[in-house]
């Protein structure tokens, strides 16, 4: 009797172990299908603008920064549109330098986007930081759509007028998972 109970317990544990392995494999596959490496996306973005001065700086210990996303292709497309919009705004306003600084801050991956153009007018920064809809009264809708796209993707968005000189700064904050 005791021997039969031991065999049943062993068989049960073996089944549970096999189930755990299957679930673990499926979870790992799911994670791989729902994450992107932000550094690779930024490198792709920089390669689009080879004729312009775009600098990408990140700490050497940031070899890979994986960001969890719902849909990899959609995220890639949308974040590229945001970056291109911000770069085009900067260059059209007269900037000659566009910098992407990527670093870890607590549990967040922060992307500081800076340029040396004339800066974002204070009225637009006020509109961007308010909950109400942005109007064409202070300019186009590019920054608003970038902000809204980031919010839809779960990315923090903050626009700052650089006071220590010309230019502007946009901060994007990503929740990250490093492996």
What would you say this structure looks like, in words?
This protein has 179 residues and is α+β, with helices and mostly antiparallel strands. It contains 5 helices and 7 strands. Strand 6 (156-161) and strand 7 form a beta hairpin. The longest helix has 32 residues, at 2-33. The model has no long low-confidence stretch (mean pLDDT 82).
Q: Could you write a compact summary of the structure shown?
A:
The chain has 179 residues and is α+β, with helices and mostly antiparallel strands.
The share of residues in helices is 40-55%
Number of E strands: 7
Major sheet description: 5 strands, mixed
Beta-strand fraction estimate: 15-25%
Order of helix and strand elements from N to C terminus: HEHEEHEEHHEE
Sheet with most strands: strand arrangement: 2-4-5-7-6
Low-confidence stretches: none
First-residue to last-residue Cα separation: 48 Å
Q: What distinguishing features does this structure have?
A:
single chain, two-stranded antiparallel sheet, elongated
Topology:
Blueprint: H1 2-33, E1 35-37, H2 38-48, E2 54-58, E3 66-68, H3 72-92, E4 98-105, E5 108-115, H4 122-129, H5 142-153, E6 156-161, E7 168-175
Parallel strand pairs: 2-4
Antiparallel strand pairs: 1-3, 4-5, 5-7, 6-7
Helix pairs in contact: 3-5
């Amino acid at each position: 009797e005791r021997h039969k109970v031991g065999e049943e317990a062993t068989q049960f544990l073996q089944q549970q172990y096999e189930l755990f392995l299957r679930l673990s494999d499926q979870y790992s596959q799911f994670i791989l299908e729902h994450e992107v490496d932000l550094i690779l996306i930024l490198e792709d973005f920089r390669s689009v603008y080879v004729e312009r001065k775009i600098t990408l700086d990140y700490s050497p210990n940031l070899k890979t920064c994986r960001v969890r996303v719902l849909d990899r292709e959609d995220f890639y497309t949308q974040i590229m549109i945001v970056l291109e919009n911000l770069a085009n705004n900067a260059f059209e306003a007269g900037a000659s330098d566009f910098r992407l600084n990527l670093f870890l801050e607590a549990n967040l991956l922060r992307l500081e986007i800076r340029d040396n153009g004339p800066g974002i007018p204070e009225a637009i920064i006020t509109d961007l930081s308010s909950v109400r809809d942005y109007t064409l009264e202070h300019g186009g809708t590019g920054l608003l759509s970038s902000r809204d796209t980031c919010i839809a993707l779960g990315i923090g968005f903050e626009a700052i007028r650089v006071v220590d000189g010309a230019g502007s700064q946009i901060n994007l904050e990503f929740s990250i998972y490093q492996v």
